[in-house]
Every structure is written in structure tokens, then in C-alpha cells.
Amino acid sequence: MAKLTLRMKNWLEGTGAHIGTATPDGIPTVVVVDKAKTSGDAEVRFALSVAQIEQIQQNIARNPQVAFGPGSIGSIRAAYQFKGQARIEAQELVVAVDEIYSTKPGPEAGLRLDNLPFESIEQFEKTRWRDSGPPR
Amino acid sequence: MAKLTQEMQDALKIVGQGGAVVYLTTSSRKGKPNTVGERFVAVFRDEYIVIAEMFAQKTRVNLNENPVGVITLAHPVRGRTWSFHGPAGILQEGLPEDYEFHGVRASDVLAEWGDWAEKEPPSEVPPDIRPPALVQRGVIILKVDYVTDFAPEQAGKIILES
Description:
The complex is a heterodimer of chains A (136) and B (162). Chain A is of the alpha+beta class and 136 residues long. In chain A, 28% of the residues lie in helices and 35% in strands. Chain A has a single domain, classed as Roll (Pnp Oxidase, Chain A). Chain A has helices at residues 6-15, 50-62, 74-77, 118-128, and strands at residues 17-22, 28-33, 37-39, 43-47, 65-70, 80-89, 92-102. Chain A has a seven-stranded antiparallel β-sheet with strand order 2-1-5-6-7-4-3. The longest helix of chain A has 13 residues, at 50-62. In chain B, a hairpin with a 3-residue loop joins strand 3 and strand 4 (48-53). In chain B, the strands form two sheets. In chain B, strands 1, 2, 3, 4, 5, 6, 9, 10 and 11 form a nine-stranded antiparallel β-sheet that branches. The chains are: A alpha+beta (136), B alpha+beta (162). Chains A and B meet through strand 1, strand 2, helix 2, strand 5 and helix 3 of A and strand 1, strand 2, helix 2 and strand 5 of B.
């Protein structure tokens, strides 16, 4: 199981995410939400509308794998990709994150972060970005 | 094939403020999705969206085995809640002379977008988020088959199709 840093949590909670799902044979569908809640080390919850649930519930029931990155300005400032296993629970998409990648353009695009010691992930962030979350 | 509206074409081609940012979602054949932000994006011949391929490793693996994608507009997004769906692939130098991707020649796409840094230098992108060098390996291309809305209350509603 991965462990999200405070910066990751701040960005996800502040800007939501673009969330990729797929059928078991790989036809993707994306929902976009503008905020999230995080709890524990690696759980992220996204409130879904009725239409969003209709759009992805079959995918999630048959294939719980999802991938997501921070939305709006976070797509620029918080270049992460999170992957995990999802379920729909009471109007929410609940994701247990098990992979975290940097998607910062350049030589570190695609670098897997969750395998690093937690202090190293925090150090990575401190030396690559100046903020600890979206502007208030 | 769906011809993009002028509003969509403009949104995918915002000049200034660092340009538009989109998410490109692909999937492995076994259904493991990959969702990554992309900032060098443009429209080709009204019906195709092109993205600079800057060593997008998983995207390439996915498109090689499962050539389909979804592009969602990430920034600026107000009133532009669009998901573009269709077949997708990667074009780069070295393909056969007459190689075609769903109705366009790879050589024509690459002639226009094969050297992004030359055509549109990334000078407007703020220094702390600008790639250290715009090293481009080719062009990711998606032929838009249809467009859906991703606004929460209308998620999945088709707003443009062929």
C-alpha cells in the first residue's frame, strides 16, 4: 500500500481529479470531480453525481482498477499519477491507492514514487516544487 | 468521425498563460488505465487531436496493444467540460512512407507537428513547470469519434458525434 504525502493530499482535496476507469478489455471512460477527501495513508474518496455513477459503475464492478491525476490547475502544478483499486460506496468512489508516479515532464516523467522511502518522496517534492498545495 | 466545433478547437489551442492542459487516458488490454496530464496539445484538420510524444512510456505500451483513448480538458476548464473519445496511436519518423492513421498520413502530421519546439516554443510555460528540454519522440494522435460532457450532472452525455 502506498502512502500519500501532505502535498498530494492537499492537491487532491483542493482540485479533485480526472479519474480513468476501463472495461475489463480496456475501453476507457473518464469522470472528473472537483474535490476529494483523503483519509489514512492511501484512501481517497470522490463524491460522484448520479450521472457519474451510471457512467462508471459497470466498469468498477467488473474492473476496479483506476488511475487519476489532480484536476484544473493541479494538472499543471501537481504532476502526479495515482493508481489503485476502487469501489463505489454511498455515492462515493473510494480508492485505495497502491501506486504513485511523478508525471513531471522531462527525465523524471513516469518515475515511481511509492517505492521510495517516505522521507525521500517528501524530499523529492521539496526539491521539485515550491508549494505544499493549491493556492487558497 | 466528428468535426470539432470552433469553440472546442479554440479551447484546445489557447495561446498565452501556458496554453491548454489535457489529460490523456489510455488502458492496457487487460483494463489497467493510465491517466496523464499533457500540455503540448493541438488540433489537426478539425477532427484529430495531437499531443507531443515526450517519452510517454506507459501510454506507448498501452496504445501499442490497445489503440484507443480519451482526452479530457483540464485547464482552463470553465464551461469546457469535454471528453474526446476515439482511436489513438503514436506517429513518429521511420514509419513507412505511406503509413496512414485513420485517414491521415503520418508524414503529413509529422510535417506539421513533428517539431513542436520549432513550431511553438514553450517559452510561455513558467520556468518551474517547464520541461528542462522539449525532447519530442513523435506525435500522439486521437481521431475524435465522439465527444461527451463530463460536467457532473450530465456526465457521459454525448454532445457531438459523427
